[in-house]
Design goal:
Layout lengths: L14 H10 L5 E8 L2 E6 L3 E6 L13 E7 L2 E7 H4 L12 E7 L2 E7 L1 E8 L4 E2 L13 E9 L2 E8 L1 H6 L13
Parallel strand pairs: 2-11, 5-7
Antiparallel strand pairs: 1-2, 1-8, 3-6, 4-5, 6-7, 9-10, 10-11
């Protein structure tokens, strides 16, 4: 029995042609994890997500910012838990069966964020991502990297795309090397 071998990119005798073909290839869609906070739907880079867990009350830490609910021990790693509703100034909500903690790897740290619910993992081709609109100084949009548009039948839904790493590294979070979680 013989097997036909097909050339691979590394066996291509013409590297310039291989580079040109790669440049002409479509851009890989952006994969995001979508979640809800109140009535709004947000998306974060799926590569930042370590796991999704059910909400469990964390151990409170004295003098932590109000939006840091406390810490949990996740397989020997102490993980700060940030309530995103409180961080964004949304009305506090009681935690229910849909409330989850998204465990993230950001800024060389493990941190958990509490959200109302997780929707799904979505692929957003570049054509479906629009730049973030300009807001007045009263709204901090510095962590919004764009708006994703998703078509569902005849309806269109908007997804607020967040730069979760920049948000978690911001000084007011207190999660930097000089701050809360050592």
């Amino acid at each position: 029995m013989t097997t036909a071998l097909t050339p691979t990119a590394s066996s291509n005798p013409n590297p310039a042609a291989a580079l040109a073909a790669a440049a002409a290839a479509p851009v890989t869609p952006r994969e995001v994890l979508s979640f809800k906070l109140g009535a709004e739907e947000y998306g974060i880079d799926i590569l930042r997500v370590q796991e999704i867990r059910g909400y469990e009350p964390p151990t409170r830490i004295a003098n932590a910012p109000h939006f840091i609910k406390g810490v949990v021990n996740l397989r020997g790693v102490i993980v700060p838990i940030v309530d995103m509703r409180l961080r964004f100034g949304l009305a506090d909500v009681s935690y229910n069966d849909f409330t989850v903690v998204i465990v993230l790897n950001v800024a060389n740290r493990t941190v958990g964020v509490v959200v109302d619910s997780v929707s799904d993992v979505l692929e957003l081709p570049p054509g479906q991502v629009k730049p973030a609109p300009e807001f007045n100084a009263a709204i901090d949009a510095s962590y919004i990297i764009g708006l994703g548009t998703l078509k569902q039948s005849d309806a269109e839904r908007m997804l607020i795309l967040m730069d979760i790493e920049s948000l978690m590294r911001s000084p007011e979070m207190g999660l930097s090397d000089d701050g809360f979680a050592h």
